[in-house]
Design brief:
heterodimer, A: 13 helices, B: 294 residues, mainly alpha, two-stranded antiparallel sheet, 11 helices, 2 strands, 74% helix, globular
């Protein structure tokens, strides 16, 4: 195993962990089925790309896009995070205010499919189906990105971001705000009855998730240096949902576990199956089938995931059996 | 101006295709309370069944029956093997949406190695041209329109005048009460999956016929258009879906003439968003999208 492979694996793991912590806040903690999660990651990636790329006349003008500001390191990442949060505002206002939760899910799914289609067809915006390439990695004017030390530096920055996001997510999960979110997820009417405003709760967590998702996209694009519609098709979101379901909804450890088991573990294991078996596209297609089976299998046999959300009780609380009975009825 | 008259003609065909798809989708949702996101993939699979029959030298009209049969049997089995057990287990609405999305993903990827990435098209599907006041349609398109009209009248008759239709409406309104009144809701639900599955399969073949060529990737587009028409009309409302199909069909074809054909689905999506903002319950339903999912 060479160091490039190790760095690659660690950075993907870091990006997936950040993304899943965000999705866990939205889906696990608050019950918002954000089927367009990958769109938020992707707007972060595109924003970071156009903020760090030179104007599109550079490199012989082989790709067209707007912007191209050549800004130094932290700005593209911050820009990506801000873009994710900004996108969450209009989307949330349309989807989260009035609609039933299953309608929210299908509206977001359709949004994801349509956004991808628009970006693919509208070439002048972000270079269409070909996508953006040669995105300058952070500090590339100071350190050569093809050296080992640069890769370790990148792993280091990613790790710092993972820790920051984890601390933030833990604070949210354990705060009174997090309790309100759980209450809303479990029974929205009851949460309204004790004076919680579900639209406000959903909007804030949707925007927060959007910000973190944007950051994860920005980190990824800085490393792989390209971003195109084919890498953010809607099934990518399903992988993340599979990870949350496998890891365990509503707790950050479960989200991290899910990231390590599904997008990292599963993809890395199946990477070694030679793709020359059978007709072209057979093995990648079977990987997707396996993701589907993973979701259905876990929802059937172990709906709470590998690490279920801890039940939060205080001393003197009613007996758990009573609570269970009340929840069932 | 002539362009728009011609677009209106295509709109008639489009609305016929969408109506069949959307009525099937909305009946599934209205009666079984299941948002079946695999609907688009069942449509495209049926289109491929008809394609292989057609390729073997069988007329596309018989292939269409084959596609409808496949859609019916497959949807029935899908419910029996996957959805019904999960529902019995008490999986939440959202859980069911995720399950159906997983099924859709699996179907697309089982199909992919079998049919390949490339676009295919049926043979001998154009027929002669008919002209009437600027509208130019092929005979096959006329047949499609006629078929849609007959099917819509059939659905209307089924729901209004037959015992099965009455039982379906009762099951949609309140399954527990229906069961207590002696309606075999299990059999009704089976019948619904067979009927809507047949509509779905038929819609898939017709949609594939109506586009010059089709590929595996079209499944998502089929789903979006059917969804948009169903939501516009009010989810679960068969007549609403018909109205929704008329509006979506005309608007998308006119926009294709005025703007660009590759944005048809984007226009359908725009209508979907507008409905969700302005009238989330849809044109006909009283509660629909606003009621708590329970």
């Amino acid at each position: 195993m060479n160091s490039y492979y190790a760095a690659n694996l660690l950075i993907y793991a870091g990006v997936d962990i950040i993304a899943l912590l965000a999705l866990n806040l939205q889906f696990g903690l608050s019950g918002i089925v954000n089927f367009s999660f990958i769109v938020f990651q992707s707007i972060g990636a595109y924003t970071a790309a156009v903020l760090s790329l030179p104007p599109d006349t550079a490199n012989g003008g082989f790709q067209i896009y707007f912007g191209g500001y050549q800004l130094p390191f932290p700005i593209p990442w911050i820009g990506g995070a801000v873009a994710g949060g900004l996108l969450a505002i209009p989307v949330g206002l349309v989807v989260l205010r009035k609609l039933r939760s299953d309608y929210q899910a299908i509206a977001l799914l359709v949004l994801s499919i349509i956004t991808n289609e628009v970006i693919t067809n509208a070439r002048p915006l972000l270079n269409g189906a070909a996508g953006l390439a040669l995105v300058p990695p952070p500090f590339s004017d100071q350190i050569d990105p093809n050296t080992q030390s640069y890769q370790f530096l990148y792993v280091g920055i990613t790790a710092v971001c993972v820790v920051l996001v984890f601390v933030l997510a833990s604070r949210v999960v354990n705060s009174p705000y997090g309790r309100s979110l759980r209450a809303m997820r479990e029974r929205e009417i009851a949460a309204i009855a004790i004076g919680k405003n579900p639209v406000q709760l959903k909007m804030t967590v949707f925007i927060l998730g959007g910000i973190i998702a944007g950051l994860s996209g920005a980190i990824l694009v800085g490393f792989i240096q390209l971003w195109a519609p084919s890498v953010w098709l809607y099934p990518e979101t399903i992988i993340l949902f599979a990870a949350i379901i496998v890891g365990g909804r509503g707790n950050n450890i479960g989200a991290i576990l899910g990231a390590l088991l599904v997008p990292v573990g599963f993809e890395e294991l199946t990477r070694f199956i030679p793709t020359t078996i059978g007709p072209p596209g057979l093995i990648p297609a079977l990987q997707w089938v396996a993701i589907g089976l993973l979701i259905i299998g876990f929802l059937w046999f172990r709906p709470d995931g590998v690490r279920p959300e801890p039940r939060r009780v205080f001393e003197g609380a009613p007996v758990i059996e009573d609570v269970d009975r009340a929840r069932r009825s | 101006m002539e362009l728009y008259v011609a677009a209106l003609g295509f709109g008639l065909v489009s609305m016929s295709v969408i109506a069949i798809a959307a009525v099937g989708f909305t009946m599934q949702f209205g009666i079984t309370n299941m948002i079946n996101l695999a609907y688009g993939e069942v449509m495209i699979s049926s289109a491929y069944v008809a394609y292989y029959l057609n390729k073997a030298g069988i007329s596309i009209w018989i292939g269409m029956v084959g596609g409808a049969l496949f859609g019916a049997v497959f949807s029935f089995l899908l419910n029996r093997i996957v959805y019904a057990p999960f529902l019995r287990k008490g999986t939440s609405h959202i859980g069911m949406v995720i399950v159906s999305l997983a099924v859709s993903l699996m179907m697309a990827n089982v199909l992919l190695p079998i049919v390949g990435y490339y676009s295919v098209s049926y043979q001998d599907t154009t027929g002669g041209l008919l002209r009437a006041g600027g509208i130019v349609l092929t005979t096959n398109q006329i047949v499609i329109i006629g078929l849609a009209v007959v099917l819509m009248l059939g659905i209307h008759g089924l729901l209004r005048y037959t015992r099965l239709g009455k039982a379906m409406r009762a099951t949609a309104a309140n399954p527990t009460l229906a069961r207590n009144c002696g309606i075999p809701t299990q059999r009704v639900v089976d019948a619904v999956w067979l009927i809507t599955g047949a509509l779905c399969g038929l819609a898939g073949v017709i949609a594939a016929m109506n586009s010059d060529s089709f590929a595996i990737a079209n499944g998502a587009g089929f789903l979006i258009t059917a969804l948009a028409a169903a939501v516009l009309g009010g989810a679960g409302q068969s007549y609403g879906a018909m109205i929704g199909a008329v509006i979506i069909g005309i608007v998308t074809e006119l926009s294709a003439a005025a703007w660009a054909p590759e944005y048809k689905e984007v226009v359908a999506f725009g209508i979907l968003v507008a409905v969700m903002v302005l009238r989330p319950q849809g044109l006909l339903a009283k509660r629909g999208a606003l009621a708590a999912a329970g």
